[in-house]
Design a protein that fits this description.
This protein is an alpha+beta fold and 308 residues long. It folds into two domains: 7-58, no CATH class; 65-302, Creatinase/methionine aminopeptidase superfamily (Creatine Amidinohydrolase, Alpha-Beta Complex). The protein is built from six helices and 15 strands. The longest helix is centred in the N-terminal third of the chain and has 24 residues, at 65-88. It is globular, with a radius of gyration of 20 Å. Bound molecules: 2-amino-4-trifluoromethylsulfanyl-butyric acid and cobalt (II) ion (2 copies).
Length: 308
C-alpha cells in the first residue's frame, strides 16, 4: 500500500516540509540539537527520510492525502453527531439516552462507535458531567439544570478514526460552570494555534498550561492528546502541559488530538470503582474540548472543525 501510490496521492513532500522547520528549531531527527547544527543541509541525513525516521524512532505514522480525506469524512460524522446530541440536550435527559442517540446515528451512517468494547469500555460514547473529568459511562444519571456535560465521540468510518468532544450547558449555567467551560474552550484554541511545522509538542502544552494556570485553574496530567486516524490511540502522546521548545518537532502529515482537561480546582484525580470514570479529587468542576488536528505545510487544519 505504502509505495503503490503515485503522483498527488504520495502525501506531503517531506523535503519541502523540512524547509519549514526553522534553523533554530529542534532538529526533527530527535538529536536534541538545533536543526542548523544537526541535519540541515547534510546529504544523507535522516531528515531526508523523515517519514521513516518518525515511524521507527517514535512510532508515528504520517498520513497521506487519501488518509486525510478519510479522517476528514469520519470527522464530519463526529461533528454531525455532536450537533444531534446538542439539539436534544436538556435537563431531565438520562445519559444512557445520549448513548442510544450516538450509537444509532453512527450505525445509520455506516460507521462504528470506537469506544464500544474498547479495552472493555461498555458503551458507545463518553458522557462526563460536572466533576467528571473524562470517560464517564452512560447509565441512569439524570442531567440536571445547570450541569456541564461533556460528550466525547469517536467514529470509525471506512477504517478511519476521528475524535472530538465538546462541553455543553444543560439549562442555565452558574458562574463557575461558565468560567471553567470558557477557559477549557480557550485552552484548546491556544493549543491549536501552537501547531505548525517546526514548533514542538512542548509548545502546545506550554500554551495551554500557562493560560489555564494564569486563570487559577489546573491541567490534568494523567490523560493526554494522542495520534489518531489509523487507530483510536496512536503515537505520539500530546501533553497539555510542558515547556516551550521541548518534546518532538511537529512535521506535516502528523494527525493528533488536542483535548485539554481543565479543572476549576486542583489537578489531582481519582478513578471510580467502575475503573473508567475519572473525577476531580477535590470535587471541583472540570471541562474539556477536543479536536483532531492535521499539521499542514504552514500550520494546521482541524479535521473536526468547530468554532471555539
Ligand atoms: N475519546 C477519548 C479520547 O479522547 C477516549 C475514550 S476511551 C473510551 O481519547 F474507552 F472511554 F471510550
Ligand atoms: Co482523544
Ligand atoms: Co475523545
Amino acid at each position: 500500500m505504502t509505495d503503490g501510490m503515485e503522483g498527488e496521492d504520495k502525501g506531503m513532500n517531506l523535503k519541502t516540509s523540512t524547509d519549514k522547520v526553522g534553523r533554530n528549531a529542534p532538529c526533527p531527527c530527535g538529536s536534541g540539537l538545533k536543526y542548523k547544527r544537526c541535519c540541515l543541509g547534510k546529504p544523507g541525513s535522516s531528515v531526508l527520510n523523515l517519514e521513516e525516521t518518525y515511524r521507527s524512532k517514535y512510532g508515528i505514522r504520517l498520513k497521506k492525502k487519501s488518509d486525510i480525506e478519510g479522517i476528514r469524512k469520519a470527522g464530519q460524522l463526529v461533528l454531525d453527531t455532536l450537533q444531534l446530541v446538542e439539539s436534544r440536550l436538556t435537563p431531565g435527559l438520562i445519559t444512557d439516552e445520549i448513548n442510544t442517540l450516538v450509537h444509532e446515528f453512527t450505525i445509520k451512517n455506516g460507521a462504528r462507535p470506537a469506544p464500544l468494547n474498547y479495552r472493555g469500555f461498555p458503551k458507545s460514547v463518553c458522557v462526563s458531567i460536572n466533576e467528571v473529568i473524562c470517560h464517564g459511562i452512560p447509565g441512569n444519571r439524570v442531567i440536571k439544570d445547570g450541569d456541564i456535560v461533556n460528550v466525547d465521540i469517536t467514529s470509525i468510518l471506512s477504517g478511519y478514526y476521528a475524535d472530538a468532544n465538546k462541553t455543553f450547558f444543560a439549562g442555565k449555567p452558574g458562574p463557575e460552570a461558565r468560567k471553567i467551560v470558557d477557559i477549557a474552550r480557550h485552552c484548546l484554541k491556544r493549543g491549536m494555534a501552537a501547531v505548525k511545522p517546526g514548533n514542538t509538542l512542548g509548545d502546545i502544552g506550554w500554551s495551554i498550561q500557562t493560560y489555564a494556570e494564569a486563570q487559577g485553574c489546573s491541567v490534568v496530567r494523567e490523560f493526554v492528546g494522542h495520534g489518531v486516524g489509523f487507530d483510536f490511540h496512536e503515537a505520539p502522546q500530546v501533553p497539555h502541559f510542558g515547556h516551550r521548545g521541548q518534546g518532538l518537532t511537529l512535521i506535516p502529515g502528523m494527525v493528533f488530538t488536542i483535548e485539554p482537561m481543565i479543572n476549576l480546582g486542583q489537578k489531582e484525580l481519582k478513578i471510580l470503582d467502575d475503573n473508567w470514570t475519572a473525577v476531580t479529587r477535590d470535587g471541583s468542576l472540570s471541562a474539556q474540548f477536543e479536536q483532531t488536528i492535521l499539521v499542514t505545510d504552514d500550520g494546521y487544519e482541524s479535521l473536526t472543525p468547530y468554532e471555539l
